[in-house]
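In keeping with the milestone schedule agreed at the kick-off meeting, the structural modelling team has produced records for the first pair of proteins. Each record is given below as a sequence line and a structure-token line. The laboratory manager (R.T.) confirmed that both were archived under the project's standard naming scheme.
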Amino acid sequence: MNKKLLWLIILILITLLNFGSIFAEAEKETDNLKGLDSLIEKEMKEWQVPGLAIAIVKDDRVIYAKGYGFRDVEKQLKVTPETIFAIASNTKSMTCFALGILEDEGKFDWNRPIKDYLPDFKLKDEYATNHVSAKDLVLHQSGVPGHDSVWYGSNLSRDDVYNILQYLEPSKELRSGWQYNNMMYVVLGKIIEKISGKSWEEFMNDKLLTPLEMSSTSFSIKDLTNSNNYSLAYSNNSGEIKKIEYRDLDNIAPAGAINSNVKEMANWLIFNLNGGKFKDKQIISEAIVNKLNNPRVIIPSYSDYKELFYNTYSLGWVVTTYRGNTIYFNTGEIDGFRAIMSYMPAENIGIVVLSTTRNFIADLITYNIYDKMLGLEEVPWFDRARENIAKAEETKKTITNLPDTIKKLNTKPSHKLEDYAGRYKHPAYGLVIIEKDGNKLKGNMREDFSIRHYHYEIFEAYDEKDIETSKIKITFYTNSNGDVNKLSMPLVADIDEIIFDKILDDKNKQ
């Protein structure tokens, strides 16, 4: 036999044996996932989730990728592994890795004050302004709480959000506590732009998305809806599945604007599992990845379940353990969507679950997949969730039926209703408009709301469609002349009131 032909036959046999080994290993891995399909379909029906997609990574390969349900219920368009969803706050870890790339290039230092990069940066607290670093912002230790009502649903631009940070009331001293803040990621985006000379979107695309072969991943609602396979946003309100409008996150884009699918997010997980390497290309050094992943602060949290541990926060990921195994994860939630990315480095497993509606089915599926992949007895997470929801509903009923012992009965406002009417302004939160409507007041702060008297100078703002859970106290204040000149509302945790000053114009002179 010709020697060349013999070597060719040997090579073919070796290749076939290798493929056989790979297929056998893949079959063994997916054997662990028996029952997953039926579980997901059952729970999606019970939790009334229109669409969902998952991808599982093991040892640098995607071993499972599948869509469930519909991306468009009305048109009966099915979810596939290529269907694009909003990933919301999972964007944050990618922004952090972009800064890590700049650190790798010797252009960025996590510990330098923000003002070294952005001289016009300003917070309300002068000490924080001069000393806060990018690391502090990522670790949510700026001293400024969320203030999400500022950007959410507003027409503010990203520059507007950056410029009004100086008007946000802090509730803690710098580095004294963990307070989740989306808006501070706008500052991180600006640092990337200042150092690189590119927009945040351009830098992310050039340095992360393109090397990771994430060509369908995008940064805007416009790009999302221009694709040929994307999910609509849905809400589940008291058992009614309803299509809703997308929430545009351009004004805090570095915190949550990315849209993607499970196939491409699987590449992101492989990249993380491989210490910054993807398909033999080291995109960011392993040393920097280890630095980013090092736990820095404890997140105030507690769990009744022995399988879960307390959460810590690194420069991009939440770090904890699941059933004794270290796990890195992030969740994201915005109108109509919830997403969770996670990976377990010791077992070289990564999981991404993208879903419609804002509920925790994505998280519960993730836990179940880890149980299966680890070969452990499956924890009844869905049964536990149902029990917790039932308890919460009972508690809600009890609280709702309790008498209001704070309210002072038989009181009335000290002014005529028209005296409360007017436009009230806060430099960050914008306008609150109060109007007299017959024998009552009504209001608007980007959206209309109803108002009823509570006691003395305190009223309640509420949504007619959901009175009990939407109530917010409005307190009116008067000046030394006895004229109504301010109102306050508790719009953010840890701060009792946000003060709005009445605007004096020809319509409401005092």
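The second protein of the pair:
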Amino acid sequence: MENSYLRVVVPEDMDLLFAWANEPEVRANSFSTSLISYEEHEAWFEKILSVRDIRQYIYMCGDEAVGQVRVAVSGDLAEISYSVCAERRHMGHGKKMLRILKQQVKRDFPQVNRLTAKVKPNNIVSRKAFLSAGYEERYEVYELDIATETQKEAENKLCCT
């Protein structure tokens, strides 16, 4: 891959990140799948520019912005989240970005000893990227949406009585 590196976001990146965040596959693989309004994004972007323990990077390949990765630090732990632009997916950029990120975190947050990420079980591409970059799967989380479950039970009663 051409010269790949991470750079810290600048205010001019707000619209690029907004477009990437609302891309259908990104929304589908996010834990919150709803589209993001511009106002919500703007408030979020201002926050990440001002909070010391959150760092947003743009993943560059040469002169081209190809993806983004965010680091949220808490003590010696950093949780990360990343995405690759639709046009450059399935080319190994996720794995490369995660490898570069390790070194970036060592420079920017020397107190961090562990990187973590949450990935949906059906996001096979990200799961493979993390495993290829040296991450280990530690545990799975199970969740029940009680409101949806209650609604399904009510619908089943109506159709089956």
